[in-house]
Design goal:
By secondary structure, this protein is an alpha+beta fold. It folds into two domains: about 1-100, no CATH class; about 105-183, no CATH class. Helices cover about 35% and strands about 25% of the residues. It has five helices and six strands; from the N terminus they run βββββαβαααα. It has helices at about 75-85, 105-110, 125-145, 155-165, 170-180; strands at about 15-25, 30-40, 50-55, 55-60, 60-65, 95-100. The strands form three sheets. It has a two-stranded antiparallel sheet with strand order 1-2. Strands 3-6 form a two-stranded antiparallel sheet. A hairpin with a 2-residue loop joins β4 and β5 (about 60-65). It is extended.
Length: about 180
């Protein structure tokens, strides 16, 4: 979630990139390969809408055209008939839904209060993130019930969680362990 200045002149100059990557192992070497990507300017995320972002070939650093024979659109029924009749090429798209803060449920808005102003997190880490949010919520609720102030800077869990999740070398291993061993 991010808050934006609502004036039309405001331009972040930033773009959010969705890159689709596969990993495969060749002998003992782990190979990373970009299978496509889509992007949207952050200014486009200021209002509620559903966006269909065109998936581009290559990578954000080196775009290439996607060959039509590489697009697998195995459609059935009515959609297959329309495809056969129209002969228009199928374009791969990423559909995303944007909601303003006001459109979110009260529970979701309250949960977001515990998050940094801007958060992008891998879906695989949501279970671990939920535990962290529940921990924070319980800690703050208990302190409130006891009429105590909470200093999260002295709470090791609260202080180190985001530092750990922000380190790409460690978070993937932690999330993998969490998903395999804990849940």
């Amino acid at each position: 979630m991010a808050e934006f200045n609502q004036t039309k002149e405001y331009d972040t100059g930033l773009t959010l990139v969705f890159e689709f990557i596969i990993f495969y192992r060749r002998e003992k070497e782990l190979i990373e390969m970009s299978t496509g990507w889509a992007d949207v300017e952050l200014n486009e995320l200021r209002k509620s809408q559903i966006l269909d972002l065109k998936i581009k070939g290559g990578s954000p650093l080196r775009e290439i055209n996607i060959n039509e024979v590489d697009v697998r659109a195995n459609r059935k029924g009515w959609r297959n008939m329309v495809k056969m009749i129209s002969k228009t090429p199928v374009t791969s798209k990423l559909k995303i839904e944007i909601k303003t803060h006001a459109q979110l449920s009260v529970e979701t808005r309250e949960d977001l209060e515990f998050m940094p102003a801007v958060t992008l997190i891998n879906r695989n880490a949501l279970g671990l993130l939920k535990v962290y949010r529940n921990y924070l919520g319980r800690t703050l609720k208990e302190a409130h019930e006891k009429h105590q102030n909470v200093d999260l800077n002295n709470d090791v869990m609260a202080r180190t969680f985001w530092k750990t999740m922000d380190c790409p070398d460690t978070w993937g291993n932690i999330v993998f362990f969490w998903n395999q061993s804990v849940t």
